[in-house]
Amino acid sequence: MLFRSPSDTETAPSRENLTCMGSLEAIALAVEVAGLPILEDLGLVVAPGDKVGVVGRNGAGKTSLLTVLAGERPPLRGTVTVRGSLGYLRQDPRQHAGADARDALAHLLDARDVNDTLVRLEKYRLMVEEHPTEANVARFSRLEERFRASGGYAAEAEARRIAAGLGLPQTRLGLPVTALSGGERRRLELARILFAGADVLLLDEPTNHLDVDAKTWLMKFLAGYRGALVVVSHDLALLDAAITRVVHLDHDGVVQYRGTYGQYREARRRDEERLRSLATRQAAEIDRLQRVADSMRGSTEKRARKAKTIDTRVARLRRDAVRGPRRERSAAYRFPEPPHAGKLVLETAGLTKGYGGAPVFEDVSFDLARGERLLILGLNGAGKTSLLRILARSEEHTSELQSLAYLVCRL
After folding, report:
1. Would the pTM of this model clear 0.70, i.e. be above it?
2. Are 331 and 356 in contact (CB under 8 A)?
3. Are 65 and 250 a contacting pair, CB within 8 Å?
């Protein structure tokens, strides 16, 4: 069911405006997960320049909605129309294609077919040198002109700029895609999507694996993006800086709000207060009518008929009654005291980690005593997650001098 908030007073964009760049339109859309419908009758129009943030509780169907909008899964009902080229960032980097032996820069440039065009240019250049006929010169000139007009000569610089903005070091672009960590691969895929210049962007948690500087860069990029954008994110700062509309997925359906995330939160608070008040009044009226009907039963025939009429009215009120907003629930956990450990609980020396290329980090040595708190900081790709995996013994280190590198955990 589609609800439109009273705060949404702007008119929908015309179909003429939808075709000027990229756009997305969903009509009577229903989405299911594991055979159970989670969204019904969704109507959504995202015109050029619209930046829509999809929010809702975990399990509300945000990621499932994006997979349907991207055409990765068929809808249960309804239609989705995408006009223009589409860029879709999945939440799991392992789902992205491109895990091949090519280096990261080649994979990035391939988003615009720059590499293939360069190969063709080189082929025709050699043909012109060997056989400088008018036909060969004309072919080379036409291809070179198209390459220049599409910004081909500046493509590599632009690709490197986007990668750097997202916190992917230049030194990592020369490595095979398979040698990158999960976080680096996801940043590479995000850079590839942005570099491709898609008319419609569907981004699922784009700030995952980004540090503060990279998030700031992405906010500025999305704020200036002129196509149609749909983003799922728990990063409130990103939503406030980049979006123009919010789609809230709830157990009662979908509510759309105009404005930033902060404006949505205020409008949502007012709507929840209104729903809570209406639900309370309806429950009180149902209870009052039920008591009146109960008092008439077992009396005269006329009063019994009236009680039956009131029962019908109560049934109708219960059927059409609104549900108040769900209350936020919190859980408290108590863990038993761990067994007593020695004074020194963790000690490392000479740890090194690499993924087939230059080491991500090397010669890491430290110790941790009982009761101490250690904070691991570093830029994207510095190896923070890899270090934690090594400490948890779920991954092996790759120190060159294995005899000098060790990890001791005393629990």
Report:
1. no
2. no
3. no
